[in-house]
């Protein structure tokens, strides 16, 4: 009996110990289990004006193949991406120069100085150091370039964060061994890493072994949209992933045993992922699908390295062909990272048809995925090693989409730190420069600095996002801006209130192509059924991913319109917020009130001639996003009552307002009568004028006859006298 009790006690404490060390499997699923009564407009859910920890690290990153150019210069060997780009893309010849960082290093350094970053994350081109990939005598020109880069960074008090492998495998290794399909690459990669530690390790304190191995395996050997472009079997994909994990572990142990004791550096591997949300928060099956989706992408590499040394159980159960780790290998692999390096950007979300969505919804909520990592892997220290968004290639320096996404992402990181105790110690904006964007080639741009690839000088021109990121770094976060207190006032009597319904969608998500036609059209539903162009300048408030535009931005836009186009009449034709709730759209009420308040400030304080406000939108579709005041089956939400109150009050009247609701109603009823009865009133006025004219003529005619009669009577009197 005592033995059984002792066994249970030992088992209990062993479970506690295991949970403390590795975290229990699927702990992250609690991220999706939210209190149904939790308010979406609570302080912890709104934009946070606060600063990051004092020691927080701010950086920016690039990949060697994307920006270095000079692929044949100074003895550099070919990589798998050199061959792949030239075979797949018609404009691939420009990758020979690209941003040309190899010969324009000084301009890159000036860009880093401009931003004021504390670290620069870059990758070493393996084939620039060793043209065949095999460690022998290094290419001196390549060696000189990286030595100069590292020394120049340290001179500027910028820490180098060095990635050993960012996808550009030497072509010779692909042709001779089959690339990462062959285990022989593991030892060759370790030899290359050893040379880097020996050569640069005295000056580098942060090392990354491999950048986003999920994309290397999945797109390089599965979908074939990345180099080497193999569209292989699913077994090949997981075999490649297996070898990447073992390669990382070997390099980590190599550094740990032979270099870290005196170089004092840290090492990790950058793991990338999407984020996903259940169709129904209360549905356990949907939550389970979300958990499986994350395990198949992030967990594939994170659980062996940051967990217990083995693959997720879901993955092993689903794929019987999945390579197996021996017990010795599990012990060798687990814990081979000094911090959790995480990538969260468009490469993890595109192309969408290749993602493991499992019928659920993709999301860009960085805060939630950070919480998932915290729960799954026992609160690791996290470096955001890649984050940002993209713009179309025709966008030069006014990259408003990138600014919006950056602001949202960084604030989500701040919320995770302040509210959720997630241990994030640094942030990497991606990318420093415009460059070659993998399967997108030059069709999109991700740089903070604009580069004209066709120009000779290739100047680094700071975009709006660079200026914004510089401000965030200087302030170490977000300082609250001065705002005008809420007004207790009403709009004019003839102010037009309305609601917009749409059947044409200009943009669904941040990655959607935009319409080239920026005009506004009215749909004559009850007439000819055609779209009629609205004349005049149209300014649309829109937001990536259909999230909320910050309310005070509304007032700024209205002031800008007045300043740019003069004192003209303005109608806000569509303004709304995506609220995921079906029953209690509290978030919509909050933003609707804030939006109208800012419109009122623009009207009263800034003297902008705003004539009307139209909320977006009447009814919603069955699928997300949910902008409607009514559900798809015509059930009204609480926001209907809220908006109705705004309309009835014509704004935000004070209790002691001169224009009380009753007086206003009468006044506006009179105004409405006047506007509707204009023809009748005009006819009545004409009739009244005619009557007055006739009466006047009769009056003067009688008066004239009276004078004649008096004159005649006087003359007769004189004659008789």
TrEMBL record:
SUPFAM superfamilies registered for this protein in UniProt: (Trans)glycosidases (SSF51445)
InterPro entries noted in UniProt: GH, GH_1_N_CS, Glyco_hydro_1
Keywords: Membrane, Signal, Transmembrane, Transmembrane helix
Segments crossing the lipid bilayer: 680-700
Record GO biological process: carbohydrate metabolic process
Record carries keyword Transcription regulation: no
Annotated signal peptide: 1-23
Keyword Transmembrane appears in the UniProt entry: yes
Pfam families tied to this protein: Glyco_hydro_1
GO MF term list: hydrolase activity, hydrolyzing O-glycosyl compounds
Domain of life: Eukaryota
Similarity annotation: Belongs to the glycosyl hydrolase 1 family.
Protein name (record): Beta-klotho isoform X2
